[in-house]
Amino acid sequence: MTLSRRHVTARMAATLAVTATLPWARPARALARTPAEAAGALDAALERLPQLHSLQVRRGADVVFAEAPRGGGLDAPANIKSCSKSLVALLLGVAIDRGEVTGVDAPLRTVAPGLIPEDATEGVGGITLEDLVTLRAGLEATSGAHYGAWVGSNNWIAHALRRPMVARPGGRMIYSTGSTHVLGAALTEATGKSLLAQARERLGQPMGFAVPPWTRDPQGYYFGGNQMALTPRAMLDVATMVRDGGTFDGTQVVSADWMRASLEPRTVSPWSGMDYGYGWFLTGSGYAMARGYGGQVIAAHPERALAVAITSDPTQPARSGGYFGDLMDLLDGPILDLA
């Protein structure tokens, strides 16, 4: 059921009144806006930002804001773009917890040697799963200017592993969807299950949402870093699970140990300046965030008990100095004011 703005505001005010006495409640004097003012600011943003399709905020157990004036609504699958990378990172944690992968330090030559082409760049076999999930494989990016040639190749994995080594594996962050795609293929080999099957069985089923099929590469591996689709409601549930240390509705979906490790800074994005953990951007204001092209966001703020899901026009760019900056202003402004 989609709540009206009036009902959301009333429910939000009641929720905040109850939770104000809880240990994790934000002191009232720190609020820059009242709940009604914060909701009003979000309403205004929905009208002011035509690229913004949907916005949901969960505080504790309650959805305190939920609007979808554009796009397919809250129950239709939306392309989450590179938020997919964060879901692949969650699946890595599940595979490690199940003993299907020995750990993040496992090298590609051990986990999935068959993925490595004979003419791979020297040193590729020693790239670890941690290097891949933190986007520190050292290989030249397949994203940006190289993206078209990469997805137009007849073997995405081989193409990615033939890129020149431009940094030490485990060194600086090189944003490259090819790294996450290789990771997803390695998980497929290690588990014997496609990335789609893993996403359905290990995330969707325990949390109660569907995961539709998405793009596959020429060898049949599901795209491990782009083009997944979830409903905005499912995105909010993922944010809630991350916020709550891997649990959702009483079920431990991803281990607490993996979630703690995932939200520790491992590197820094050269583009946004944000820290990056195991597949999650980490903001200075306390969010763990999955970020996708166009302004797709799955964000968790454990300290403030907030979970946020945002969908946007997936065909338009969202740069840190532009529309994505507008979204960050919302996250760090009126959304935090709901806490």
UniProtKB/TrEMBL annotation:
Taking every annotated instance into account, which residue ranges of this chain make up the domain Beta-lactamase-related? 75-318
For the keyword Hydrolase, the answer is yes
- Which of UniProt's keywords are assigned here? Hydrolase
Give the InterPro entries listed for this entry.
Beta-lactam-related, Beta-lactam/transpept-like, Diverse_Enzym_Activities, TAT_signal
Q: Name one GO molecular function term.
A: hydrolase activity
Alphabetical list of PROSITE patterns matching this protein: TAT
Name of this chain's protein: Serine hydrolase
Where is the organism placed in the taxonomic lineage, from the top? Answer: Bacteria, Pseudomonadati, Pseudomonadota, Alphaproteobacteria, Rhodospirillales
